[in-house]
Inverse folding.
């Protein structure tokens, strides 16, 4: 056994990778410099600086909801909840339930605030950051809005045309009713006494209608 391979009284101690910890120290100094720069910018803008928590690498950017939030879906409905199913807001109870966070809210305003909170965004895998739109995306959005407005105008014109047709049809029906009333009045004037029924007198003073 060589002298280098012989165990010493300090061989049980943990050894450290100097290059690895030098890199960690450099990264820490870089974070401190970035935080100091952010603090200075916030102070210059008259804002208070809040340090951000670390974002998971697989977190996706926050996007707007694709569908309208229907908070009146359970109005008039009866919900059966086991006793002790929820403690405070924790657990599924009677009210607005968030499956991602396992929380129940009695008020729809609290539920909407929770959906926009950092806790819910973190549990749903969102970073809370909104993607900055590019020039091409803005142009596409404007073109879509123009097309949508044009389609709404065309739909409104169709509705107006339908209303005009219904109005003309109503006028025609009114003219037809007025013509029928006029003919009935003329028929009454032609009959004797204006009763609308012609009387015929026969022998024996009998009246045949």
């Amino acid at each position: 056994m060589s002298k280098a391979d012989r165990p010493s009284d300090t061989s049980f101690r943990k050894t450290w990778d100097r290059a690895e910890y030098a890199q960690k120290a450099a990264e820490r100094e870089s974070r401190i410099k970035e935080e100091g720069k952010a603090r200075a910018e916030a102070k210059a803008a008259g804002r208070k600086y809040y340090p951000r928590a670390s974002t998971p690498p697989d977190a996706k950017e926050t996007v707007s909801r694709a569908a309208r939030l229907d908070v009146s879906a359970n109005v008039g409905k009866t919900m059966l909840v086991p006793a002790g199913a929820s403690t405070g807001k924790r657990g599924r109870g009677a009210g607005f339930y968030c499956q991602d966070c396992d929380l129940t809210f009695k008020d729809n305003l609290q539920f909407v605030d929770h959906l926009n909170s950092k806790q819910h965004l973190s549990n749903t895998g969102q970073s809370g950051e909104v993607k900055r739109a590019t020039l091409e995306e803005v142009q596409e959005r404007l073109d879509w809005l123009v097309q949508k407005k044009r389609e709404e105008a065309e739909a409104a014109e169709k509705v107006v045309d339908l209303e005009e047709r219904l109005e003309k049809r109503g006028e025609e029906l009114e003219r037809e009713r007025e013509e029928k009333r006029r003919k009935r009045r003329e028929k009454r004037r032609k009959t004797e006494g204006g009763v609308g029924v012609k009387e015929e007198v026969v022998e024996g003073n009998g009246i045949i209608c």
Q: What stands out?
A: Strands lie at 96-98, 103-105, 200-201, 207-208. The mean pLDDT is 76. The first strand starts at residue 96 and ends at 98.
